[in-house]
Amino acid sequence: MREYLLTIALAATLCYLITPFIKSLAMKAGAFINVRSRDTHTVVTPRWGGIGMWISMSVTFMVVNHLPLVAKSFGREATGIFIAGTFIMILGALDDMYDLDSITKFAGQAVAGGILLLHGVQILWLPINGIYILPPSIGQLLTIFFVMVVINAVNFVDGLDGLATGIVAICAMAFFAFSYLLAVVNGLNRAGAPSLITAVIIGICIGFLPHNYHPARIFMGDSGAMFLGLLLSAAAITLTGQIDLNAITSAGSDTALLPLLLPFSVLAIPFIDLGMAIIRRLRAGRSPFAADKEHLHHKLLSMGNSHRRTSAILYSWTAMFAFPTVVAAFAPLWVSLAVGLLILIFSLALIRESLVSSNVKTK
């Protein structure tokens, strides 16, 4: 655990120190976003936060590769994740500058998924009537689809200062806790790509958040949103491949079913926002990718919440889905429900306080 904590601290420190230089570079290169009608920011803001994240990850990999435990996490899968992450970051950086069309981005996301497949990162089974081993071709299609869905879910939720950064950090914490505890409880290898990748995600998000929190001085852009989405999806897929299903199911544990269910739990808020946006736009006769001001964070802002409080509320909602799912894998159900209830009470208190403040101001 100490080596993973060191990995998190190193990635956070590097991202925090590198990001100001990326900010200056983005402004000089023209990779910035002007103020649009649907935006919540009021000044021209640079993008390319994903480049700083990628540099931080790369340097962190080079350093922790010399640690006794974490070094064992590097292999074919970690190499594939690094190459695919590099590719998707470059695609996102180009989009931050030139606003690429949706088809080009989807094609690039599929290519990134293909890179993962070439390095053995693939969905091998599904929790259908027990454990169903997928035919290779079906597993490959599902892998690419899953990667693309997670990438776009993260991208959709990136509409408020610090929102996507914080949500992804919480998701990565849940993934890391699950993968590490699963290894400890079931005697599996604690050095694996899922723990390494999620530790790095936590670090770069923590390091980037001070620059990205309201008022944001830099945005992660598509270079960051797609990069983080790919890392999250790859971590979830590699986790399923490292589980000894026979050992776990023979012990009567339900944790074997969670690796593929966990992403939909910890990413519940991005997925809900994505689904609502697609349905809303199709009903209005618009493209599902046409931007609007009706996302969850827009609705919370319209209720009188500040930028920071809105982010805090959505952070708490993410935690409410993520952490009880992890707890349920290793503790009695009532403990999981209690954790979820406590987080729900906290989020309701935040909303109530904002409504009270709003009513006081209007009187």
UniProtKB/TrEMBL annotation:
GO terms for biological process: cell wall macromolecule biosynthetic process; cell wall organization; lipopolysaccharide biosynthetic process. It is found in: Cell membrane. Pfam families: Glycos_transf_4. InterPro entries: Glycosyl_transferase_4. GO terms for molecular function: phosphotransferase activity, for other substituted phosphate groups. The chain crosses the membrane at residues 6-27, 48-68, 74-94, 106-125, 131-151, 163-185, 191-213, 225-243, 255-279, 312-331, 337-355. Keywords: Cell membrane, Membrane, Transferase, Transmembrane, Transmembrane helix. GO terms for cellular component: plasma membrane. PANTHER family: PHOSPHO-N-ACETYLMURAMOYL-PENTAPEPTIDE-TRANSFERASE (PTHR22926), UNDECAPRENYL-PHOSPHATE ALPHA-N-ACETYLGLUCOSAMINYL 1-PHOSPHATE TRANSFERASE (PTHR22926:SF3). This is Unannotated protein. It comes from freshwater metagenome.
